[in-house]
Amino acid sequence: MHKRHPQEWIAAAGMAVVLALIALELVDDAVNTWSDRHSFATDAVSTLLGLAVAALVVDRISARRRLRDQAQVMAAQGAMIAAQALRATGAVTSALDGSGEREAAADELRTFMMMMLTGAPVLMDAPDTRQFVETSQHLGAELARAWA
Length: 148
Prior knowledge:
Layout: H1 6-27, H2 29-37, H3 39-97, H4 102-123, H5 127-147
C-alpha cells in the first residue's frame, strides 16, 4: 500500500477549496455580490491558491523524478547488501554448526553490518527500499544474536 505524502493531502485540500469556491460562485448570489465588491481580494486568494497547488504539484513531480534517477543506484546498493547478507548468513551458519571458520564468519557479519550502515541513507527515500533496509536490519540482528 502506498502511503500518501503530506503534500499530496495539502494539494488535494487546496483543490477541494478551489472547487468549493467555484461551486459557491455558481450557486450562491451572495458570494457573487461579495466577490464583485471585493474583486482584488478574490483575485489575490484565487491566485495564491493556484500558485500553492502548482508549487505542490511541481514539488511532487521533482521528488518522483529524483527517485527515478536514483533507482539504479538504489538497486545496485540493495544488490550488494543482499549478496553480503547471503555470504554472512552462510558463514555464520557454517561457523555455528562447526563446519566453517569463526573468524571468517565474524568478518562477513561485520562487513554486512557496515554495508547496511553505509547503504541505508541511499535506500531510505523509497518505501520498498526502506522495507528492504528494515528486513536487512532484522536479519543482521538475528545473525548477531545467533553469533553471540
